[in-house]
Amino acid sequence: MRLGLALGYWGRGPDPRHLELAREAERLGYDSVWTAEAWGSDAFTALTWIAAHTSRIKLGTGIAQMAARTPTATAMHALTLDHLSGGRLLLGLGLSGPQVVEGWYGRPFPKSPLTATREYVEVIRQVLCRQGPVEVDGLFHPHPYRGADGTGLGKPLKPITHPLRADLPLLLGAEGPKNIAQTTRIADGWLPLYWSPLRTGVYQASLAKAPDGFLIAPMARAVVCDDVAEGLLPVKAMLGFYIGGMGHAAKNFHADLMARMGFEEEARRVQQLFLEGRKEEAVLAVPDAFADEISLVGPRERIAERLELWRTGPVTDLLVTAPDPRTLRVLAELNA
C-alpha cells in the first residue's frame, strides 16, 4: 500500500503549510500529493505550484470537478501539467452534486450522471490518445456540438499539443454502487470519499469486476496525538459539513453513503441538525465510531495497529490528510 498526501482545498486563503508538507512527503518517500477544489481555490493551479517545487512525487487532483470545465478543457489542463511535471500527473475527477453544480457553476445537474460521466471520460481519453479528431455522439458532451441552438459549424479537432502520455491515469470519485461499478470499467482507479477497513463489504459487489492494477485510493485524516477524542474533532467537523451541508435534504450523496455504511439514523440526524442551522450540534452528533473507522488518529501504537487493517484490504493508495510533518514521518515509518 502506497502513501499519498491529500492537501484538500484552501480555506480563506492559501495555506502556508501545504508546500512544506508536500516537500516533506516527497523526502519521506510518499508516492503522491493531491489537491482538491470546491467553490474557492482550484485544483490545478495549486498542484502546478507544488510541481515546480518537487521533482519525484506524483501529482493528483483529488478531485477536480467535472462541472468546472468542459472535458476538453480538463484534458488541456491535464496534458499541460503532465508535460511540465515530467509525467507525474494523476487525473482525479468527480461529478459533485446538484447544489454545487447548479448553485456554483450555474449548470443543470445531469439527469443521467452515469452517462454524463462516461461521455466526459471518453472525450478526455480521445484527447490524450490523439489518434484523430475528437468525436463523441453524446447526450451531454457531444463533439462537435450539434444542438439546435448552435451554428452547425463545429469542426472535429485534434489537440495541437502532443500529450506526453496517452495512458495518463484517470481516477473517479464515485459514491453510488452503480457509479463505482462503472468506474471499474472506464477509469484506472477510484477515489472513495469514506473508506472503513471494517466495512469493505459495502463496496464488494461494485468492485467485483475491477481489473488487475485498478487503483483504490481513499482519503483519511491522520494525526499522531494522545487524546483520540480531541483528534477526531476535525474528522467530525468535516463529516458534519459534508453530510449536512454538501447536499439538499432530499438529495445528499454523502449522507446516503454514510447510511449505506451502517449509520443511517445518525446520518439523518446530522443532516437535520445542520439544515436547521444547529451546526455545532450536528458535528457533535457525528458518531465517534464512524469518524474513527475512516481515519487514523491517536498515539503511534494505536495508529500502527489500525494501519494494518488498511494494509490487509484492497486499498492500493492511502491518501492521508496530515496536519504536521511528525504525522507524515510516523506513517512513513509504520508503512515501510
TrEMBL record:
<dbReference type="Pfam" id="PF00296">
    <property type="entry name" value="Bac_luciferase"/>
</dbReference>
<dbReference type="InterPro" id="IPR036661">
    <property type="entry name" value="Luciferase-like_sf"/>
</dbReference>
<dbReference type="InterPro" id="IPR011251">
    <property type="entry name" value="Luciferase-like_dom"/>
</dbReference>
<protein>
    <submittedName>
        <fullName>LLM class F420-dependent oxidoreductase</fullName>
    </submittedName>
</protein>
<dbReference type="InterPro" id="IPR050564">
    <property type="entry name" value="F420-G6PD/mer"/>
</dbReference>
<keyword id="KW-0560">Oxidoreductase</keyword>
<feature type="domain" description="Luciferase-like">
    <location>
        <begin position="17"/>
        <end position="313"/>
    </location>
</feature>
<dbReference type="InterPro" id="IPR019951">
    <property type="entry name" value="F420_OxRdatse_Rv3520c_pred"/>
</dbReference>
<dbReference type="GO" id="GO:0016705">
    <property type="term" value="F:oxidoreductase activity, acting on paired donors, with incorporation or reduction of molecular oxygen"/>
</dbReference>
